[in-house]
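Course assignment 3, question 2. Fill in each field.
Student: A.L.
Task: Predict the tertiary structure for the chain below.
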Amino acid sequence: MSDTFEIIHGFLLTKFLDNSIKDYVISIAIIVLGIAVIRFIKKTAMSRLKTWAEKTKTDYDDFFIYVGEKNLIPLCYFGVVYIGIRGLSLHPVIGKTIRISGITIFTYLAVKFLIAFVEFVMKKHWLKNLEPASSTKVEKTFPAIRISIWILGTVFLLDNLGFQISTVIATLGIGGVAVALAAQAILKDLFSYFAILFDRPFEPGDFIIIGDFMGTIEHVGIKTTRIRSLSGEQLVFSNSDLTDSRIRNYKRMARRRVVFKIGVTYQTTQEQVESIPGIIKSIIDSIEMATLDRVHFASFGDFSLVFEIVYYVESSEYNIYMDIQQQINFKLKHEFEARSIEFAYPTQSLFLTHANNPLKEAVS
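Answer field:
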């Protein structure tokens, strides 16, 4: 028995490529056991996690389970192999190859995960709230996002492999500064386009006012936005002009607040004056989509008694507002004529007195 043990022990201590058979057996055992554990976890734990994720309301757990199964499991397999062979004495070339392979695989899987996560967040929080046209525009930016992340991943990989990437970047930076200065306006409009796309201060179809210009948004492009004005011509703004301006978006207005005044003559009787607020209230209450806020005898004007009326139009459409205001004007004129109440207009009255008239005293 002891002889057999000594033979086995001697065999395990036999050297092969600077490593004993015992080292190879331990390494293989670690790899086999690690792979078995990973497969067990993948078969049992992952299936239970998927069942649990299906019952939750959020989509984040489904995403992380899917990405973990697709990217994390392969990384674990490589990690098990790396742990298994790190105890061996390997040729420097083989060791360097394994290290480079590890960094490359890790970078590749990290980039894949980052791309998947960015696209998932964009689809989850932005695309579902966008119009189909805007959603298509956002999806067109995905290739540029992927390329940017791959470039960052490549820089990270080269830097960790020992390349003097900072020197290359500095060299490219000299030319990059010149290009950036030449393309500054274009880049500003491009970033403004992304700001409009993601922040959505307006969308095609919205009626907006920018300074002295107004119109309906027709198209939002990468550099310019086109607006159709009320008079029919097309207005073209650079995206940076819009993001740097104060914009009034009437399409986002839930309802319109309207303030207008009317004046009646000073010859209007007290009874008629007191009846006017009730007349105006009944007129506005009878019109659909109009809600009265207040009506007051506001002031004594130069030639009229001024009433101020405030009401709301339950729509953002300008034509609906004008139709309602027209109905109010028609009914006001009808009701005032029926009650002999006169609208005021600029007039002058000349009053003559004979108190100190010398001709009158002479006649007397």
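Instructor remarks: The chain has a mean pLDDT of 78. The longest strand covers residues 290-300.
Grade: pending
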